[in-house]
Amino acid sequence: MKVIAIEDNSLPIISAGLFFDAGEFYESCGNNGMARIYKQLLLLSEFKDETRFEFNEKLEKFGITKDFSGGQDIIYLGCTGTALEIEKVFDGIYSLGFSLNTTNENFETAKEHVTRFSKSQKRYPRATCLLEQKTWQRLFKSRELEYNCPIDDALLNELKAEHISNFSNKIIQPNKAVLVVTGNLKTDKIFEAVNKKFSKLKIQTDASKKAHSKATDFCKIDSNTEIVEYADIRETEVIIGFEAPAFTDPKMPAAYILQTALNDYHKSPLKTLLKNEFPEAKNIFARYLPGKNRGLFTLGFTYSKEHEDRAIYSVISKMNTLKSQIPSEKNLKNIIELAGIKNLERFESRIDRVFYTGLAEILGDFRALERLDSDLIAVDTQSLKKTYEEIFVGKKYAISVMKPLKYKKQQETNIFFSFSYKDLA
Question: Is residue 221 a contact partner of residue 416, using CB atoms and an 8 Å limit?
C-alpha cells in the first residue's frame, strides 16, 4: 500500500481516503460497469465482523463521517474525524476497503442501480457527460482507455454476483491501494497508526485467473443515427475532441493554461471566433481532461438552428489562425493567475485535498498536483504556442453531435483522420 501523509495544522481534524485504480480491469473485459457496482456495494453491504448498523453506529459515536466518490475509473472511500480518533478513522477505512461481505441480493440491487444510471445517461447526456465519453471512445482506439467510455449495456447485463470476486481479487488489493491522510498530526504518528491497522493485510489471488467477458470491438469509426428521447437536450450540442497531454506530461500545465485562455478568460479568442463566424453559437467552452496515459481537449458549443457543419468546420479550419492569438506575456500573467485561483479550489477542504491528491496519484504522480502552481507560473508564450500546435494543428480529432427532441433523432458524426490546413485554403 502506498501511503501519502500530509501534515496540516489548520484544523484539529484528520481526513483519510483509500483509492483503487479500476481502469486496468476494463482492459481485458470491456467497460461492464463493475466499478460503479462496487461503489454501490460500499453503501449496501454488511461486513465480515459486524453489521452495517453496528458499523454506522460506531462511526457516529465518535463523530466520524464517511465519503464515497469515483466512477468507472477509481474506487474512492474516505473517513473524517478528530485527530484523537485516528485509529477509529482507520477502522472505518479498513472495514470499507477490506471487510465487505457482499450478498447476492446486495449485488442485484447495485447492478439495478447501475443499469438505471446507464439508461439515465442516454436520456440525460448533458448532465452525465455522455458526450465527452463518446468523444473519448471515437478519438482513441486503445482499450486501456475504455474506462473513459460509456458503459457497455450488453456486458453489464452479463454480470453475475460471482464476478465480484474477480474484480476484487484484481483491483481491491492492498498492494494496489493508495491511502492519503491529511490532518494535524506529525507524519511519523500517521505512519505508526497506518502500520498498526494495515500491516497484516494479505494479497488475495484469483484462482480462476480468467477475466470475465470477452473483449468487444473498440472504437468503431462510423456514423449512425438513433432515435433517442433526450430529456436535457434543448439545443443541438457539439463537441470537438483532440488528443492532449496526460496528467504527468510536462506539457500538462500549459494545457491547463490553454483551457483558461480559451474558456475562462474574458478575451477568449475561441469565443470571439465563433461569435464572428457563427453568431447562433451559445454556451461556448473549452475543457482539458488529463488522463493517465493521454488526455482529451474538447471544444464545444450549442445552437438552436441548423447548419452546424459551418460552425464545426469554421472552428477546425481556423485553429491555425487562433494560434496567432495566443495571449501576449502581459495578458498571459493574468491568465496564469486565473488558472492558479481555479487550482486552489481543489484544496478548499480536507476532503477535497485528500480526493484530488489520491486521484493525482492514480493518474501518475500526486507531486504533479502539488507543484502545479509553480509549474503554471513557469509557462511562457513560447511553450504555450508549442503545446497549442501539438494539440490542435493538423491532428486527429473526433466530433460528436447530439440534436434535441424536436429533431426526433440523435446524430453522431465521426471524423477521424489527419490532415493539413493547407488543404482547406
Answer: yes
In whole angstroms, what is the distance from residue 360 CA to residue 43 CA? 24
Cα separation, 254 vs 380, in Å, equals 8
Q: 34-44 vs 163-170: helix axis angle to the nearest 10?
A: 100
pTM, two decimals, is 0.81
pLDDT tens profile 279-307: 888 888 999 999 888 899 999 888 876 66
Cα distance between residue 264 and residue 257, in whole Å = 10
Q: How many CB atoms lie within 10 A of CB 216?
A: 14
Label residues 105-140 b or e (16+ Cβ within 10 Å = b): ebbebbbebbbebbeebbeebbebebbbbbbbbbbb
Q: Provide the grid cell at 415.
A: 471524423
Q: Where are the extended beta strands (E) located within 224-328? A: 224-226, 236-244, 282-290, 295-303
pLDDT at 387: 92
- Which residues, in sequence order, are bridge partners of residue 300? 239, 285
Cα 36 to Cα 32: distance, rounded to the nearest angstrom: 9
Per-residue pLDDT at 105: 93
* Long-range contacts, 54-59 (Cβ 8 Å, 24+): 55/92, 55/95, 58/88, 58/91, 58/92, 59/88, 59/92
| Sequence letter at residue 208 | S
Neighbours of 323 (CB within 10 A): 16
pLDDT tens digits for range 304-337: 766 656 777 777 877 777 777 777 777 888 888 8
Reading the block at residue 384, the C-alpha cell is 504555450
Rounded distance, CA 148 to CA 291, Å?
Answer: 9
Residues with Cβ within 8 Å of residue 270, at least 6 apart in sequence: 262, 263, 284, 286, 299, 315, 322
Report the distance separating Cα 425 and Cα 417, nearest Å. Answer: 18
Which residue would you say has higher pLDDT here, 205 or 246? 246
Residue type present at position 103: T
Eight-class DSSP state of 23: T
How would you label 270-298 residue by residue, b for 16+ Cβ within 10 Å and e otherwise? Answer: bbebbeeebebbeebbbbbbbbbebbbbb
Instruction: Give the E-state strand segments of 71-211 in sequence order.
Output: 74-82, 100-101, 177-183
d(CA 145, CA 358): 19
Q: Are 3 and 179 in contact (CB under 8 A)?
A: yes
Q: List Cβ neighbours of 75 (8 Å cut-off, separation of 6 or more).
A: 19, 20, 22, 35, 38, 39, 42, 171, 172
Is the backbone of residue 67 left (phi > 0), alpha (psi -120 to 50) or beta? beta
